Amino acid sequence: MGPKMPPAMGAPGITTFKADDFKAAVAQYRCLVSGSCKDAAGNSIAIDLPEAQVLRNQIAYRVMVDIEADYSRFEMNLTTQRAGFETGADTIQLGMSAAASLVGAADVKDILTASLTGFQGTRLSLDKNFFREKTTESIISQMRASRKTKQAILIKSLANRTVTDYPWEAVWIDLVDFYYAGTVPSALVEIASSTGKQADDANKELKDAAGKLAERTPEQAKQALDITAVYYKLEAAVTDPAKKAGAIQSLKNILTAVDKKPDDNASADDLLAQLRAAMGAAQDDKSGDKIAKLSAAMAKEKIE
């Protein structure tokens, strides 16, 4: 039912995220976020939110790879096993029907006819209760569309959201949704409630998300991480009475430099919100000019 899989794709050890490795990676992420852990030498591990974001994304993509690999095998099995069952059922029905027409004894004919009726009812019940009388193709089409929609959300969020507003726990919820989108019950619910054209829209959304990621140069990717690191420092500084005034002035300087001059009486929360909006606009700017300008403005500020 499909071409031979390349050796690299058929080697599970390359992609499989083992449970122990997964737990260790999540533990390391939590150390980087909280700063409450110690290394092997007993030294405290400092909070490093940009590094935590990189690690969060690595974990999420490795889990996503495992889900993709398992789904591909499931889809192939669903197609072949259901087709095999239907072919076998057709063979049994044809055989029993032919036997009933050829047998002369009335009692044997009655037994065969009753057995055929019972088998046909069982087959119909199985198809009705497990697959809601939907074709395999329609179920698979819906699963693919739902999965691509969920995957697009994941890719966009991992690319554009920090660990502050998109922590690992939120990523895990979206990964679970992505997994369940590839199940028959979920597909049947979506088929019952959706109105079509969903697969094309989901495909476009996924391509757009992937395209945005591909357009970033290595320099722009570094600028994005530097911007995020400075933002976290400013966010922490405005909560420290000794650093708050300087942090507020730095926020105003940065926003003014990127043509977002704030009100003189703007609060720290308002300034941070404006900076987040500027960061979002820089991420969406395909030319790269906004992210370069914002990075340069932030680099001028000395934030402890």
Write a structural description:
By secondary structure, the chain is an all-alpha fold. Helices cover 75% and strands 0% of the residues. The protein has twelve helices and no strands. It has helices at 12-15, 19-34, 49-102, 106-131, 136-160, 168-180, 184-193, 198-214, 218-237, 244-257, 268-284, 289-299. The mean pLDDT is 80.
Which key phrases capture this entry?
mainly alpha; 304 residues
Q: From the alpha-carbon coordinates, what is the Rg to the nearest angstrom?
A: 29 Å
User: Which H/E pattern describes the elements?
Assistant: HHHHHHHHHHHH
Assess the beta-strand content as a share of residues: under 5%
Major sheet details: none
Shape: elongated
Give a topology summary.
Layout: H1 12-15, H2 19-34, H3 49-102, H4 106-131, H5 136-160, H6 168-180, H7 184-193, H8 198-214, H9 218-237, H10 244-257, H11 268-284, H12 289-299
Compact overview of the structure:
The chain is mainly α.
